[in-house]
Structures are given as structure tokens and as C-alpha cells.
Design brief:
With 172 residues, the chain is mostly helical. It has a single domain, classed as Tetratricopeptide repeat domain (Serine Threonine Protein Phosphatase 5, Tetratricopeptide repeat), CATH 1.25.40. It is built from seven helices and no strands. Helix 2 packs antiparallel against helix 3. The radius of gyration is 23 Å and the shape is elongated. Keywords: Membrane, Mitochondrion, Mitochondrion outer membrane, Peroxisome biogenesis, Transmembrane, Transmembrane helix.
Length: 172
């Protein structure tokens, strides 16, 4: 009995997650973004290039994980600007992943999928990227199912309206 209850709870949780749109990508609040901005500001006052790059990467992480769309867009812009100068494969993988998160948060799912697939070409077993890819695919599937439901409802309403109009004209 307990086994069945556990399976039912898991099923209800996954159905709830499906309709609520929750995912496993962390969010970041404004305090963290502000802290990272202070770090960058302090690093600009004479720190090494390596420390500055680390601070900028942390800020990019915070921005693309922010709940504020303008932060996410800023993070995307920072990451895209830094990509051309990235020769280290590990850093490239990190930046591509963060870009994929930013585009996911912006609702640009096809761009996000493309970027996460580039990450997986660099590190095929990277669990974070695999989880993000599944999250993107689940979201696209969910949006498709909801879209089909909306279209079916609209067709039903139109058909119902036509039937009602036809019925009314026969009564006259």
C-alpha cells in the first residue's frame, strides 16, 4: 500500500510540475546580483585579469538566473560579448551553459537547446547540461500540449457557434 501511495505521490508531483512549469534551474535574487556587481567593481581597481574574469563569470551566472528579465538580458549580452575571446574549453562550456540558461529564462527554447547541445559536444556526460536539455525538452512538450489544447478549444467553440447559428436559423 505504501508503495502505491509513493507512486501516486510521484505521479501527482510530476503532473503538478508539468502544469506549473517548475524546473530545476535555480533562481537568484537581487542581493546576489548586487554582491557580484560589487565584486566586479572592486576587481576593476587593479586585480589580475584572471580574478576579473572569475568575477564577471559569477556576475553572468547571477544575471541569467535572476527573476528580472532585464538582468537576464544583461547576462546574455555579457556572455555573448565574452565568447569570442574564450579558448579554454572548460570556460567555453561554462559560458555556453549560462547562455543556454539565459535563453531558456527568456523563452527562447530553440536557441537554448542549440547552446546546450554545443555544451554537450564539449562534455557529453555533464549532468547540469543534460538536466537543462531535458528541462528544455519538457517545456517545449508542455507548451505544445497546451497549444494543442487551446487550438482544440477554439475549434470546439467555433463549431459550437456554427451549430448554434444553424439551429437558430432553422427555428425561424
Amino acid at each position: 500500500m505504501a508503495k502505491l501511495e509513493g507512486k501516486l505521490a510521484t505521479m501527482f508531483d510530476s503532473v503538478g510540475n508539468f502544469f506549473s512549469g517548475s524546473d530545476h534551474i535555480p533562481w537568484c535574487d537581487g542581493d546576489v546580483v548586487a554582491g557580484c556587481e560589487r565584486e566586479v567593481s572592486e576587481a576593476e581597481k587593479g586585480s589580475s585579469d584572471e580574478l576579473m574574469k572569475e568575477c564577471l563569470l559569477r556576475l553572468s551566472w547571477a544575471l541569467v538566473h535572476s527573476r528580472r528579465p532585464e538582468d537576464v538580458q544583461r547576462g546574455i549580452a555579457m556572455l555573448e560579448a565574452s565568447l569570442p575571446g574564450t579558448s579554454n574549453q572548460l570556460q567555453l562550456r561554462e559560458k555556453l551553459y549560462l547562455l543556454a540558461v539565459g535563453h531558456y529564462r527568456s523563452g527562447e527554447f530553440s536557441r537554448s537547446r542549440e547552446l546546450v547541445e554545443r555544451c554537450l559536444r564539449i562534455a557529453p556526460d555533464w549532468r547540469q547540461a543534460l538536466t537543462l536539455k531535458k528541462t528544455i525538452e519538457d517545456r517545449v512538450t508542455k507548451d505544445g500540449v497546451i497549444g494543442i489544447g487551446i487550438a482544440a478549444t477554439a475549434v470546439g467553440l467555433i463549431a459550437g457557434g456554427i451549430a448554434a447559428a444553424a439551429s437558430a436559423s432553422r427555428r425561424k
